[in-house]
Design brief:
The structure holds 2 protein chains of 2 kinds. Chain A is mostly beta strands. Chain A is 0% helix and 55% strand. In chain A, strands 2, 4, 5, 6, 9, 10 and 11 form a 7-stranded mixed beta sheet that branches. In chain A, β5 and β6 form a beta hairpin. By secondary structure, chain B is mainly β. Classes of the chains: A mainly beta, B mainly beta. Chains A and B meet through β5 and β10 of A and β5 of B.
Chain lengths: 115, 111
């Protein structure tokens, strides 16, 4: 079984709709991240969470919100989807702790299309 | 703000050849990560470089880190078709442990 899972894997929606993308992990990691990937732009950080009570905005948080329901679950919401939010979204995890390095492990991705 | 530049962004090469991908970054960072992404797939961790002078090798790939020059390299030796993928470097910011991603180098290796 995959250590980091994302649902749904593909989603097509319309402008103005509310969308939730979910991420679950069985790695026991404290830190979780949401990224979006656009062609030629690498990955851009949307939100990250170092533990259940710690949520931080990333580089491109406008138009997005998150919820860390448990150590293993981190959800990303688009309150009112717009076409330029069409992208590939990745969830990632890392161990956490001051003495560890930050190697991140990625889920399979969710391809979101906003019409 | 930490900026990352990968060079080249696209590389088409023949099997059997050697080549190097460069990753330059703009501010102090002691840790850097290399990832591979196949088309339509997720990102897979390749190398974790944790200090100046670190060198890691796996098969035909070798990565190195020079924190003083703010440069990491990914060297491909005797390329094979299976290495075709997009490769990303990501230095880690000292201040908040975030990874800052390069745009990726798309590598195509022709038989």
């Amino acid at each position: 079984d995959a250590d980091v899972t994302q649902t749904p894997r593909n989603r097509i929606t319309k402008t103005g709709k509310r969308i939730m993308l979910e991420c679950s992990q069985t790695k026991g990691h404290d830190r979780m991240y949401w990224y979006r990937q656009d062609p030629g732009l690498g990955l851009r950080l949307i939100y990250y969470s170092f533990d259940v009570k710690d949520i931080n905005k990333g580089e491109i948080s406008d138009g997005y919100s998150v919820s860390r329901q448990a150590q293993a679950k981190f959800s990303l919401s688009l309150e009112s989807a717009i076409p330029n939010q069409t992208a590939l979204y990745f969830c990632a995890t890392s161990v956490g702790g001051a003495l560890t390095y930050n190697e991140q492990f990625f889920g399979p991705g969710t391809r979101l299309t906003v019409l | 703000e930490l900026k990352v530049e990968q060079n080249p962004l696209f590389l088409s090469m023949q099997e059997g050849k050697n080549y190097t991908i460069y990753c330059n970054y703009s501010t102090t960072s002691d840790r850097l990560y290399w990832y591979r992404q196949d088309p339509g797939k997720s990102l897979e961790s390749l190398f974790v470089l944790l200090s100046n002078g670190a060198v890691k090798q796996e098969g035909r790939l070798m990565a190195s880190l020079d924190t003083k020059a703010r440069l990491s390299t990914l060297h491909i030796t005797a390329a094979v078709h299976d290495l075709s993928a997009t490769y990303f470097c990501a230095p880690e910011m000292d201040s908040n442990y975030q990874l800052i991603w390069g745009a990726g180098t798309k590598l195509i290796i022709k038989p």
